[in-house]
Amino acid sequence: MPSKIEYTKLDAIALDPLNPRLGRTAHSKDLAQDQIYDLMKDWSLEELATSFLESGFWPHEAVLCIEEKIGDKDLVVVEGNRRIAALMRLRKTYAGEETSRKWLEMIEGVPQPAGLFDDVPFIRYADRGEVDAFLGFRHVTGIKEWAPPEKAQFIAKLIDDKGLTYREVMRKIGSKTDTVERNYIAYRILVQMEETEGLDAKEVENRFSVLFLSLRSKNVQKFLGIEGKFGIEPKDVKNPVEDENLDKLKEFSLWLFGDQETAPIVPDSREVDRFARVLASTEGLDYLRSVRRPSLEKAFIIAGGDQEQVYDLISTAAYNLQEALSSIHLYKDDEKLLAISKRMIANADQIRKTLEIE
Fold it and tell me: Is 19 exposed, middle or buried (0-12, 13-18, 19+ CB in 10 A)?
Protein backbone atom coordinates (compact mmCIF):
# COMPACT_ATOMS: atom_id res chain seq x y z
CA MET A 1 0.00 0.00 0.00
CA PRO A 2 1.17 3.59 -0.65
CA SER A 3 2.48 5.42 2.37
CA LYS A 4 2.67 9.08 1.37
CA ILE A 5 2.78 11.69 -1.34
CA GLU A 6 6.21 11.92 -2.95
CA TYR A 7 7.65 14.41 -5.42
CA THR A 8 9.75 13.83 -8.52
CA LYS A 9 10.82 15.47 -11.76
CA LEU A 10 8.49 15.31 -14.75
CA ASP A 11 11.24 13.52 -16.69
CA ALA A 12 11.10 10.62 -14.24
CA ILE A 13 7.49 9.73 -15.10
CA ALA A 14 6.47 7.80 -18.22
CA LEU A 15 3.07 7.97 -19.87
CA ASP A 16 1.20 4.70 -19.62
CA PRO A 17 1.31 2.70 -22.89
CA LEU A 18 -1.62 0.63 -21.55
CA ASN A 19 -3.84 3.62 -20.79
CA PRO A 20 -7.35 2.42 -21.82
CA ARG A 21 -8.11 5.81 -23.36
CA LEU A 22 -5.46 5.18 -26.03
CA GLY A 23 -7.54 2.35 -27.44
CA ARG A 24 -6.78 -1.24 -28.21
CA THR A 25 -5.22 -0.47 -31.61
CA ALA A 26 -2.59 1.75 -29.97
CA HIS A 27 -1.84 -0.94 -27.38
CA SER A 28 -0.97 -3.43 -30.09
CA LYS A 29 1.61 -1.10 -31.67
CA ASP A 30 4.03 -0.92 -28.72
CA LEU A 31 4.19 2.86 -28.98
CA ALA A 32 7.18 4.93 -27.89
CA GLN A 33 6.72 7.75 -25.38
CA ASP A 34 6.76 10.50 -28.00
CA GLN A 35 4.09 8.64 -29.99
CA ILE A 36 1.87 8.34 -26.92
CA TYR A 37 2.35 12.05 -26.25
CA ASP A 38 1.37 12.88 -29.84
CA LEU A 39 -1.86 10.92 -29.39
CA MET A 40 -2.62 12.65 -26.10
CA LYS A 41 -1.61 16.25 -26.72
CA ASP A 42 -5.03 17.19 -28.11
CA TRP A 43 -7.03 15.56 -25.32
CA SER A 44 -8.41 18.88 -24.03
CA LEU A 45 -5.31 19.59 -21.96
CA GLU A 46 -5.75 23.37 -21.97
CA GLU A 47 -7.90 23.57 -18.82
CA LEU A 48 -5.41 21.48 -16.87
CA ALA A 49 -2.51 23.60 -18.07
CA THR A 50 -4.33 26.83 -17.15
CA SER A 51 -5.00 25.45 -13.67
CA PHE A 52 -1.31 24.60 -13.26
CA LEU A 53 -0.34 28.14 -14.24
CA GLU A 54 -2.83 29.72 -11.85
CA SER A 55 -2.58 27.40 -8.84
CA GLY A 56 0.33 25.03 -9.37
CA PHE A 57 0.03 21.26 -9.00
CA TRP A 58 -2.00 20.65 -5.86
CA PRO A 59 -0.72 17.71 -3.74
CA HIS A 60 -4.26 16.34 -3.36
CA GLU A 61 -4.29 15.85 -7.15
CA ALA A 62 -1.17 13.67 -7.01
CA VAL A 63 -0.94 11.18 -9.87
CA LEU A 64 -0.77 7.46 -9.18
CA CYS A 65 2.38 5.73 -10.40
CA ILE A 66 3.64 2.17 -10.43
CA GLU A 67 7.22 1.02 -10.30
CA GLU A 68 7.75 -0.12 -13.87
CA LYS A 69 10.73 0.39 -16.14
CA ILE A 70 10.17 2.15 -19.47
CA GLY A 71 13.38 3.34 -21.09
CA ASP A 72 15.26 5.40 -18.55
CA LYS A 73 12.16 6.02 -16.43
CA ASP A 74 11.26 3.95 -13.36
CA LEU A 75 7.73 5.27 -12.82
CA VAL A 76 4.67 4.90 -15.04
CA VAL A 77 1.57 6.99 -14.38
CA VAL A 78 -1.55 4.82 -14.34
CA GLU A 79 -3.97 7.48 -13.08
CA GLY A 80 -3.40 11.06 -14.14
CA ASN A 81 -2.01 10.62 -17.66
CA ARG A 82 -3.78 13.77 -18.89
CA ARG A 83 -2.21 15.81 -16.09
CA ILE A 84 1.25 14.55 -17.01
CA ALA A 85 0.62 15.15 -20.73
CA ALA A 86 -0.58 18.69 -19.93
CA LEU A 87 2.64 19.34 -18.00
CA MET A 88 4.68 17.98 -20.91
CA ARG A 89 2.96 20.22 -23.43
CA LEU A 90 3.24 23.21 -21.13
CA ARG A 91 6.95 22.64 -20.70
CA LYS A 92 7.42 22.34 -24.45
CA THR A 93 5.58 25.65 -24.83
CA TYR A 94 7.95 27.42 -22.43
CA ALA A 95 10.90 25.78 -24.21
CA GLY A 96 9.81 27.25 -27.55
CA GLU A 97 8.94 23.83 -29.02
CA GLU A 98 5.19 24.49 -29.33
CA THR A 99 3.60 26.12 -32.39
CA SER A 100 -0.03 26.23 -31.27
CA ARG A 101 -1.24 29.82 -30.98
CA LYS A 102 -3.60 28.84 -28.18
CA TRP A 103 -0.78 27.44 -26.06
CA LEU A 104 1.56 30.32 -26.85
CA GLU A 105 -1.11 32.82 -25.80
CA MET A 106 -1.66 30.82 -22.62
CA ILE A 107 1.84 31.50 -21.31
CA GLU A 108 2.15 35.04 -22.69
CA GLY A 109 3.19 37.29 -19.82
CA VAL A 110 3.15 34.38 -17.36
CA PRO A 111 6.54 33.45 -15.88
CA GLN A 112 7.26 29.72 -15.69
CA PRO A 113 6.06 28.62 -12.22
CA ALA A 114 8.96 27.60 -10.01
CA GLY A 115 9.17 23.86 -9.41
CA LEU A 116 6.17 23.00 -11.61
CA PHE A 117 8.18 20.52 -13.69
CA ASP A 118 10.57 19.46 -10.92
CA ASP A 119 8.20 18.71 -8.03
CA VAL A 120 5.38 16.64 -9.46
CA PRO A 121 3.31 15.06 -6.64
CA PHE A 122 2.72 11.33 -6.98
CA ILE A 123 1.76 8.28 -4.95
CA ARG A 124 3.83 5.16 -5.51
CA TYR A 125 2.37 1.67 -5.97
CA ALA A 126 4.29 -1.55 -6.47
CA ASP A 127 2.20 -2.83 -9.39
CA ARG A 128 -0.98 -2.29 -11.36
CA GLY A 129 -2.96 -4.72 -9.26
CA GLU A 130 -2.86 -2.34 -6.30
CA VAL A 131 -4.57 0.39 -8.36
CA ASP A 132 -7.19 -1.71 -10.18
CA ALA A 133 -9.97 -1.22 -7.64
CA PHE A 134 -9.50 2.56 -7.64
CA LEU A 135 -9.48 2.73 -11.44
CA GLY A 136 -12.60 0.58 -11.61
CA PHE A 137 -14.59 2.73 -9.21
CA ARG A 138 -13.40 5.97 -10.83
CA HIS A 139 -13.63 5.14 -14.53
CA VAL A 140 -16.09 2.24 -14.88
CA THR A 141 -18.75 3.20 -12.35
CA GLY A 142 -17.55 6.61 -11.16
CA ILE A 143 -17.75 10.24 -12.20
CA LYS A 144 -14.89 10.14 -14.72
CA GLU A 145 -16.14 7.29 -16.85
CA TRP A 146 -14.17 5.79 -19.68
CA ALA A 147 -15.84 5.24 -23.04
CA PRO A 148 -17.73 1.90 -23.39
CA PRO A 149 -14.91 -0.06 -25.12
CA GLU A 150 -12.41 1.18 -22.53
CA LYS A 151 -14.61 -0.03 -19.67
CA ALA A 152 -15.03 -3.42 -21.31
CA GLN A 153 -11.30 -3.74 -21.98
CA PHE A 154 -10.53 -2.98 -18.32
CA ILE A 155 -13.05 -5.59 -17.16
CA ALA A 156 -11.61 -8.14 -19.60
CA LYS A 157 -8.11 -7.45 -18.30
CA LEU A 158 -9.19 -8.19 -14.74
CA ILE A 159 -10.79 -11.45 -15.87
CA ASP A 160 -8.26 -12.67 -18.45
CA ASP A 161 -5.05 -11.52 -16.78
CA LYS A 162 -5.97 -12.00 -13.14
CA GLY A 163 -8.45 -14.87 -13.39
CA LEU A 164 -11.24 -13.03 -11.54
CA THR A 165 -14.88 -14.13 -11.73
CA TYR A 166 -17.70 -11.78 -12.66
CA ARG A 167 -18.68 -11.49 -9.01
CA GLU A 168 -15.12 -10.73 -7.95
CA VAL A 169 -14.88 -7.99 -10.58
CA MET A 170 -18.24 -6.63 -9.41
CA ARG A 171 -16.94 -6.38 -5.86
CA LYS A 172 -13.71 -4.79 -7.04
CA ILE A 173 -15.17 -2.03 -9.21
CA GLY A 174 -18.67 -1.60 -7.76
CA SER A 175 -20.68 -2.50 -10.87
CA LYS A 176 -23.55 -4.98 -11.24
CA THR A 177 -22.61 -8.59 -11.95
CA ASP A 178 -24.79 -8.86 -15.07
CA THR A 179 -23.29 -5.63 -16.43
CA VAL A 180 -19.79 -6.99 -15.87
CA GLU A 181 -20.77 -10.23 -17.61
CA ARG A 182 -22.29 -8.49 -20.64
CA ASN A 183 -19.27 -6.18 -20.96
CA TYR A 184 -16.94 -9.16 -20.95
CA ILE A 185 -18.92 -11.18 -23.48
CA ALA A 186 -19.28 -8.13 -25.75
CA TYR A 187 -15.53 -7.55 -25.54
CA ARG A 188 -14.75 -11.18 -26.37
CA ILE A 189 -17.13 -10.96 -29.37
CA LEU A 190 -15.27 -7.81 -30.50
CA VAL A 191 -12.01 -9.76 -30.36
CA GLN A 192 -13.62 -12.59 -32.36
CA MET A 193 -14.80 -10.12 -34.98
CA GLU A 194 -11.29 -8.77 -35.38
CA GLU A 195 -9.89 -12.28 -35.74
CA THR A 196 -12.55 -13.59 -38.15
CA GLU A 197 -11.47 -13.65 -41.78
CA GLY A 198 -13.75 -11.72 -44.08
CA LEU A 199 -15.22 -9.58 -41.32
CA ASP A 200 -14.59 -5.82 -41.23
CA ALA A 201 -14.60 -4.81 -37.55
CA LYS A 202 -13.18 -1.30 -37.89
CA GLU A 203 -16.36 0.45 -36.76
CA VAL A 204 -17.27 -1.99 -33.99
CA GLU A 205 -15.04 -0.42 -31.36
CA ASN A 206 -16.31 3.07 -32.24
CA ARG A 207 -19.91 1.89 -31.69
CA PHE A 208 -19.22 -0.62 -28.94
CA SER A 209 -22.22 0.53 -26.90
CA VAL A 210 -24.50 -0.71 -29.72
CA LEU A 211 -22.95 -4.18 -29.47
CA PHE A 212 -23.16 -4.09 -25.66
CA LEU A 213 -26.84 -3.10 -25.68
CA SER A 214 -27.78 -5.62 -28.35
CA LEU A 215 -26.67 -8.50 -26.14
CA ARG A 216 -29.54 -7.79 -23.75
CA SER A 217 -31.90 -9.28 -26.32
CA LYS A 218 -32.66 -12.99 -26.22
CA ASN A 219 -33.27 -12.76 -29.97
CA VAL A 220 -29.71 -11.56 -30.56
CA GLN A 221 -28.31 -14.20 -28.23
CA LYS A 222 -30.26 -16.93 -30.05
CA PHE A 223 -29.24 -15.67 -33.51
CA LEU A 224 -25.54 -15.78 -32.55
CA GLY A 225 -25.96 -19.02 -30.61
CA ILE A 226 -24.59 -17.53 -27.40
CA GLU A 227 -27.54 -18.10 -25.03
CA GLY A 228 -25.49 -20.66 -23.14
CA LYS A 229 -22.61 -18.24 -22.62
CA PHE A 230 -24.51 -16.29 -19.98
CA GLY A 231 -24.61 -17.48 -16.40
CA ILE A 232 -21.40 -19.54 -16.63
CA GLU A 233 -17.82 -18.89 -15.59
CA PRO A 234 -15.90 -16.39 -17.78
CA LYS A 235 -13.11 -18.93 -18.38
CA ASP A 236 -15.60 -20.78 -20.60
CA VAL A 237 -16.49 -17.69 -22.66
CA LYS A 238 -13.20 -16.96 -24.44
CA ASN A 239 -14.84 -17.38 -27.86
CA PRO A 240 -18.57 -16.79 -27.31
CA VAL A 241 -19.60 -17.43 -30.93
CA GLU A 242 -18.96 -21.02 -31.98
CA ASP A 243 -17.34 -21.80 -35.34
CA GLU A 244 -20.62 -22.98 -36.88
CA ASN A 245 -22.12 -19.53 -36.22
CA LEU A 246 -19.29 -17.39 -37.58
CA ASP A 247 -21.20 -16.76 -40.82
CA LYS A 248 -24.05 -15.36 -38.71
CA LEU A 249 -21.53 -13.23 -36.82
CA LYS A 250 -20.40 -11.76 -40.16
CA GLU A 251 -24.01 -10.98 -41.09
CA PHE A 252 -24.69 -9.52 -37.65
CA SER A 253 -21.63 -7.28 -37.88
CA LEU A 254 -22.47 -6.07 -41.39
CA TRP A 255 -26.07 -5.19 -40.49
CA LEU A 256 -25.18 -3.58 -37.18
CA PHE A 257 -21.92 -1.80 -38.08
CA GLY A 258 -21.56 -1.88 -41.86
CA ASP A 259 -18.22 -2.00 -43.67
CA GLN A 260 -16.23 0.17 -46.10
CA GLU A 261 -18.83 -0.31 -48.83
CA THR A 262 -22.07 -0.74 -46.89
CA ALA A 263 -23.70 1.50 -44.30
CA PRO A 264 -25.16 -0.14 -41.18
CA ILE A 265 -28.94 -0.61 -41.14
CA VAL A 266 -29.02 0.21 -37.40
CA PRO A 267 -28.21 3.93 -37.13
CA ASP A 268 -27.90 4.08 -33.33
CA SER A 269 -28.54 2.20 -30.09
CA ARG A 270 -32.20 3.31 -29.96
CA GLU A 271 -32.96 0.96 -32.87
CA VAL A 272 -31.36 -2.13 -31.35
CA ASP A 273 -34.66 -3.58 -30.08
CA ARG A 274 -36.27 -3.27 -33.51
CA PHE A 275 -33.25 -4.96 -35.08
CA ALA A 276 -33.51 -7.79 -32.54
CA ARG A 277 -37.15 -8.32 -33.51
CA VAL A 278 -36.09 -8.73 -37.15
CA LEU A 279 -33.46 -11.34 -36.23
CA ALA A 280 -36.20 -13.50 -34.70
CA SER A 281 -38.27 -13.47 -37.90
CA THR A 282 -37.69 -15.84 -40.83
CA GLU A 283 -39.31 -13.37 -43.19
CA GLY A 284 -37.31 -10.47 -41.77
CA LEU A 285 -34.03 -12.36 -42.14
CA ASP A 286 -34.91 -13.41 -45.71
CA TYR A 287 -35.41 -9.75 -46.56
CA LEU A 288 -32.09 -8.67 -44.99
CA ARG A 289 -30.24 -11.42 -46.82
CA SER A 290 -31.82 -10.94 -50.23
CA VAL A 291 -31.80 -7.14 -50.61
CA ARG A 292 -28.56 -5.36 -51.43
CA ARG A 293 -29.33 -2.28 -49.33
CA PRO A 294 -32.01 -3.33 -46.85
CA SER A 295 -33.99 -0.92 -44.69
CA LEU A 296 -34.49 -1.60 -41.00
CA GLU A 297 -37.92 0.05 -41.17
CA LYS A 298 -39.07 -2.27 -43.96
CA ALA A 299 -37.48 -5.30 -42.32
CA PHE A 300 -39.26 -4.45 -39.06
CA ILE A 301 -42.64 -4.28 -40.81
CA ILE A 302 -41.99 -7.54 -42.69
CA ALA A 303 -41.13 -9.14 -39.35
CA GLY A 304 -44.47 -8.02 -37.94
CA GLY A 305 -42.80 -5.58 -35.62
CA ASP A 306 -45.49 -2.94 -36.06
CA GLN A 307 -48.28 -5.31 -34.98
CA GLU A 308 -48.25 -4.12 -31.35
CA GLN A 309 -48.33 -0.54 -32.58
CA VAL A 310 -51.44 -1.29 -34.66
CA TYR A 311 -53.07 -2.86 -31.59
CA ASP A 312 -52.35 0.28 -29.57
CA LEU A 313 -53.63 2.65 -32.26
CA ILE A 314 -56.92 0.81 -32.81
CA SER A 315 -57.45 0.23 -29.09
CA THR A 316 -56.85 3.90 -28.28
CA ALA A 317 -59.22 4.98 -31.06
CA ALA A 318 -61.93 2.64 -29.79
CA TYR A 319 -61.68 3.89 -26.20
CA ASN A 320 -61.66 7.53 -27.35
CA LEU A 321 -64.75 6.93 -29.48
CA GLN A 322 -66.52 5.23 -26.59
CA GLU A 323 -65.77 8.22 -24.35
CA ALA A 324 -67.00 10.68 -26.99
CA LEU A 325 -70.36 8.87 -27.24
CA SER A 326 -71.33 10.06 -23.79
CA SER A 327 -71.70 13.67 -24.92
CA ILE A 328 -71.65 13.70 -28.73
CA HIS A 329 -75.45 14.13 -28.89
CA LEU A 330 -75.06 17.61 -27.44
CA TYR A 331 -73.26 18.81 -30.56
CA LYS A 332 -75.11 16.99 -33.36
CA ASP A 333 -75.54 20.19 -35.38
CA ASP A 334 -71.84 21.21 -35.16
CA GLU A 335 -70.41 21.31 -38.71
CA LYS A 336 -66.82 20.65 -37.63
CA LEU A 337 -67.91 17.62 -35.61
CA LEU A 338 -69.92 16.33 -38.57
CA ALA A 339 -66.88 16.59 -40.86
CA ILE A 340 -64.64 14.77 -38.40
CA SER A 341 -67.24 12.06 -37.86
CA LYS A 342 -67.63 11.45 -41.60
CA ARG A 343 -63.87 10.90 -41.88
CA MET A 344 -63.96 8.55 -38.90
CA ILE A 345 -66.85 6.55 -40.40
CA ALA A 346 -65.00 6.26 -43.73
CA ASN A 347 -61.88 4.98 -41.93
CA ALA A 348 -63.94 2.53 -39.89
CA ASP A 349 -65.55 1.24 -43.07
CA GLN A 350 -62.11 0.72 -44.61
CA ILE A 351 -61.04 -1.27 -41.52
CA ARG A 352 -64.18 -3.42 -41.87
CA LYS A 353 -63.39 -4.17 -45.50
CA THR A 354 -59.68 -4.85 -44.85
CA LEU A 355 -60.38 -7.21 -41.96
CA GLU A 356 -63.42 -8.67 -43.76
CA ILE A 357 -65.69 -7.97 -40.82
CA GLU A 358 -69.35 -8.74 -41.59
Answer: buried
| Domain membership of residue 193 as a residue range | 135-265
Query: What pLDDT shows up at residue 308?
Result: 67
Beta strand 5-8 pairing with 120-125: antiparallel
Residue 138 has what DSSP assignment?
A: I
In the predicted model, what is the mean pLDDT of the chain?
A: 88
Q: Specify whether 144 is located in the same domain as 259.
A: yes
- Kindly state whether residue 229 falls inside one of the protein's structural domains: yes
* Residue finishing a domain among 103, 126, 149: 126
The last residue of one of the domains, among 265, 283, 301, is 265
Domain contains 215: yes
Q: In the 8-state DSSP scheme, what is residue 62?
A: P
In terms of domains, do 13 and 120 share one? Answer: yes
Same domain, 103 and 166: no
Count how many domains the chain has: 3
Distance CA 66, CA 13 (A): 10
Question: 245 and 201 share a domain?
Answer: yes
pLDDT at 299: 92
Q: How far apart are CA 240 and CA 249, in angstroms?
A: 11
Alpha helices in the chain (DSSP H): 24-27, 33-40, 46-55, 81-94, 101-107, 132-135, 148-162, 166-173, 177-195, 208-214, 218-224, 246-257, 272-279, 282-290, 296-302, 307-324, 335-354
350 vs 358: CA distance, rounded Å: 12
Query: What's residue 268's pLDDT?
Result: 85
Q: Give yes or no for residue 221 having a pLDDT over 80.
A: yes
Going from the C-alpha of 179 to that of each of 89, 141, 166, 183, 289, the distances in angstroms are: 37, 11, 9, 6, 32
Residue 26 falls inside a structural domain = yes
Q: Is the pLDDT confidence value at 139 over 80?
A: no
- In whole angstroms, what is the distance from residue 106 CA to residue 124 CA? 31
The CATH number linked to 43 is: 3.90.1530
Q: What is the pLDDT of residues 40-84, one digit of tens each?
A: 988 889 999 999 998 899 888 899 998 989 988 989 999 889 999
Query: Are 150 and 210 in the same domain?
Result: yes
CA distance 18 to 78: 8
Separation CA 80–CA 19 (nearest Å)? 10
pLDDT at residue 215 in the model: 95
